[in-house]
Structure formats: C-alpha cells, structure tokens
Amino acid sequence: MSLNSLARFGVILVSGLGVMQANAVTQNTKGGFVDLNVYPYLSDVEADSVATINIAANLENRFSYFSLTNFINQPATDELQDTTGYYTEQNIRWQIADQSPLDLTAQFNFRTGQDNDRHRLGFRWRMADTEWLKEYFAAVHLSWSMNFHLYQWDSEPGHVWQIEHSFRMTFPYVSDRLYLAGFIDHTFNQDLPDSYPASPVVWETQLGYEVFENFFAIAEYRVNQYNRQDVNNVAVGVEYLMKW
Q1: Under 8 Å CB-to-CB from 134, ≥6 apart: which residues?
Q2: 71, β-bridge pairs
Q3: What sign does the dihedral 169-36-87-121 (CA atoms) show?
Q4: For residues 24 and 69, what is the distance between their CA atoms, to the nearest angstrom?
Q5: Computed from CA positions of residues 182, 88, 39, 33, in that sequence, does the dihedral angle turn out positive or negative?
Q6: CA–CA gap between residue 102 and residue 86 (Å, rounded)
Q7: Which helix (H) or strand (E) element contains residue 137?
Q8: Largest Cα–Cα distance of the chain, in whole Å?
Q9: Using alpha carbons only, how large is the chain's radius of gyration in Å?
C-alpha cells in the first residue's frame, strides 16, 4: 500500500473510530454532538487542515468533554492526497456550581512531531450564560466563551499562556439553516524569532449552510500567524453533524 493510500485509509479509519466513539458516548452522556468536516479545497496554504472531527459531550456531575482533531495535508500535494500530520485538543471541563457561567478546564494538546505536546490548566467564562449579559447575547443570537489557559507545561522555556475565544452565531431572521462559528487563539509570552508577532493569533471563522438534514456546505477563513509564508487561507468543504 502506498503512503498516499495509507494516509487516506488512516483518515477514514480514524473518522470511523470517531463516529463509533460518539455512538458509545451517547449511552453515557446527557447530550452532545459529533461533526466531521472535510475540505477538498484550500486556497493558498497547502499544508493545512483538510479534515476535522469535533466531539462534545455533557457528562454527569457538571463535567463536560470537548475534542477536536485536525488532519493536515503534506506540503506540495493536492488536498486529501497525503494527510501525514495531525493536531488534537482534548478538553475536560467542570462547571464550578449549578447555573454558574464558569468552568475549570484542562486541555491536553498533541500534534505531529517530537517534544511539542502542550497541556494547559485554567478556567472558561461562558459569557452568554452570564446573568447580566444573557439578554444581549440572546438578542443577537450569539454565544461566546473565553478560555483562560493560565498554566501551560511543555518543552518551551518561560511561562507561556493563552486566551482562547470560541463563538457561534445564528441568523433566524435570514434562515434557520445558516450559522457562523469559530475560534480565536491568542498566545502570550512565547520565545519566538523576531519575524513573528509578539503574541501570535490562530483564528478560524466557519460559515455553514444546512443543505439537507445534518449535511452542511461550509467555507472557512483561516488566519495562522505562525505560518510566516502565508498567514491567510480559505477552505471550502462539507460537514456532517450528529446530535443527541
């Protein structure tokens, strides 16, 4: 089996395992979702994510779980032809009290390569669940949370920390099928070359439209300030979403 075929088989296998895992979780959770995103088109940066699996579950005793796994294209190859890299975040969260908008968080971050895993502790503020902000966020059909990863342990020197924003907006006055969602990761105190921004940002915004039940056409605008050759990228693809 060629490396190309093996890589594609690996993507299919892991995708299948992700769905199987989600099926197992439905028996032991209070709700959640799994979605698979595939991007056959990338505009400018070839070595970028061509498939993503997201899984979320609400657990007992105010715990919750969220993970994302990106499969990354090999440079100088067509999309979906040689997916030899990966990046994953595994998150465990604990709501500190009933009705509280604050969660304690632990994130475990793994990626292709050696000595580059990162693990983080902190807290998340769900702004749209905050009593004095609820009315505003409900009025504009927006949810927004900020995850303060205050302590990070890895192989890097110094005290590196991060603020992670995640958001989702719907447009019922236009169509119940339309949404805008994404994240902004803002990292501080990294020891980086002078050619990098002092506090780099990784940002993705996804526009999705439900073509038919649980299947979406999607387009993403991506900014990655760690990529010094081309910071911006656009990805176009499809998404399958399963909720329980």
Answers
A1: 128
A2: 51, 86
A3: positive
A4: 18
A5: negative
A6: 30
A7: helix 134-139
A8: 58
A9: 18
Q: What are the structure tokens assigned to 72, written together?
A: 């990354």
Residue-level length of the chain = 244
Domain ranges of the chain: 3-243
DSSP state of 8: H
- Tokens representing 109? 């971050």
pTM of the model: 0.84
The closest alpha carbon to 12, from 68, 73, 83, 74, belongs to 83
In tens digits, the chain (244 residues) has pLDDT values of 344 444 454 555 555 555 555 555 556 677 999 999 999 999 988 888 899 999 999 999 999 999 999 998 866 555 555 556 889 999 999 999 999 999 999 999 998 888 889 999 999 999 999 999 999 999 999 999 999 999 999 887 789 999 999 999 999 999 999 999 999 999 999 988 998 999 999 999 999 999 999 999 999 999 999 887 889 999 999 999 999 8
Nearest to 124 by CA among 107, 144, 146, 142: 146
Task: Specify whether the CB–CB gap between 183 and 167 falls below 8 A.
Answer: yes
Give SS3 for 139. Answer: helix
The rounded distance, in Å, linking the Cα atoms of 127 and 135 is 11
Protein fold of 3-243: Porin (2.40.160)
The residues, ordered by sequence, that sit 6+ positions from 68 with a Cβ below 8 Å of its Cβ are 52, 53, 54, 88, 89
Strand partners, 124: 103, 147
- Contact assessment for residue 103 and residue 126, using Cβ atoms and an 8 Å cutoff: yes
Q: Is the dihedral of CA 111, 116, 121, 122 positive or negative?
A: negative
